[in-house]
Amino acid sequence: MNNAKTAVEVEQLTKRFGQFTAVNKIDFYIPQGEIFGLLGPNGAGKTTTIRMLCGLMRPDGGSARVLGYDIARQPEEIKKRIGYMSQKFSLYNDLSALENIKFYAAIYNVPEKERANRVAQLIEMSGLNGFENELTRTLSGAWRQRLALACAIVHNPPMLFLDEATAGVDPVSRREFWDLIYTLAGEGTSVLATTHYMDEADYCNTIGMMYEGELVALASPETIKDNLPGVLIQVDCSQVIEAADLLETLPYVHNVSVHGAQVHVTANEKRDVQKIEKALTQAGFQVNSIEIIQPSLDDAFIAIVMHHRAQLRESSND
What we know:
The structure is a single chain. By secondary structure, the chain is an alpha/beta fold. The chain has helices spanning 46-53, 75-81, 97-107, 112-125, 141-152, 171-186, 198-201, 221-226, 240-247, 272-282, 297-317; strands at 6-17, 20-31, 35-39, 61-66, 69-70, 82-86, 159-163, 190-195, 206-211, 214-219, 231-237, 253-259, 262-267, 287-292. It has two domains: 6-219, P-loop containing nucleotide triphosphate hydrolases (Rossmann fold, 3-Layer(aba) Sandwich), CATH 3.40.50; 226-317, Alpha-Beta Plaits, CATH 3.30.70.100. The protein has eleven helices and 14 strands. The chain has a six-stranded mixed beta sheet with strand order 6-7-8-3-9-10, with helices on both faces. It has a four-stranded antiparallel beta sheet with strand order 2-1-4-5, with helices on one face. The longest helix has 21 residues, at 297-317.
């Protein structure tokens, strides 16, 4: 096995479906006990990546090791040692919450003498006390999510994969779910989570932003936001769509995106605030407020994708 302090190592990992490249030569690693997030829209390649790392799909190029095992040559060894939970995690609706956990304990070969204690621990950890004898089909989405996590980690896996595991759950329940993930990471469990919720990426130690099968950014959430080129300006004005169209024509503006009733503008420098306000006013727009703000991951992702697209256009024109 490789260095035990590294949970996942990925080098030039590639997956193709016919002429379509779903994952294109990506590289990253996950230290033991860290939470790594793969962030991106649907179709970016996140689920294909996670399926390869779980030993469920063979790569067409590159290599990866999970807990020291090669995903192409030793997939069965990986499957024994990981937990996996997706939005569609299989729970048995006609069993109670307790029966589901007991069933997965048997499937994962948790020793019988340890089983009762482990099941009790998971009921406590997931907050299912008082609900353990309820039929799974009667549980709310948030409680089913907690139950699915308990089933996924019943065998104490050192590596946990979460594939869009919080999709369709309300924001408060998502936060409570992430509190459970923090607890697991604090106990040494390594986590790879895919998500298209930008706010969830802030819970991760490191995030990889995926777009059209490629990793377009790889760093901590704060580093990615801090490295956004130029300054981010928030404009509250009339006719935001028309205002955004105008701002896109200004030579000192890099990116423009509409956020509800406001426009976010990435410009070269701080003094461009006055230029933008003047341009909007002269064009007949009413500017209610304009200020420099700290970029969010939404802003960073948009800027990175726009830069990536520009690079692709330049390379295709060469």
